[in-house]
Design brief:
Elements: H1 20-30, H2 37-42, H3 44-55, H4 60-71, E1 82-83, E2 89-91, H5 107-127
Antiparallel strand pairs: 1-2
Helix pairs in contact: 1-3, 3-4
Length: about 130
Amino acid sequence: MKLDAPYRIQLTGTPMHHTVADMVVQSQWLFAQNEGDGLAKHGPERLAKAVNDAKREGDKEEAYKVIKDCIWPWTIRRWGETRDADGKELVKVPQLHTNDIRLEYRPRELKWLPEWVEKTKETEKARF
């Protein structure tokens, strides 16, 4: 059976994705059939590279800025007021507020983290 879908719909939200890596997979799916200049700046390849850069030794702050810049245009946000057929306002869009909250590991977590990473690598190698 061949499915000929004329469009794709993607639903995202804080409870629906768990890591930035999940957003890479979602963006690869969302933009699979798209081409154009916008994808160079906001597409899945640039996002995947920034996520990989963030995982390695490098400028985490720069990787964070690229990730934010990459995903912002396709983050779900209504920009205009919803109106009925007569132009009457139905829903007022609240003013946009963004907050960057940097979380830090506690000393105990920092001590435990490398061990967890190594165990995860071993588990993944065994799976494949």
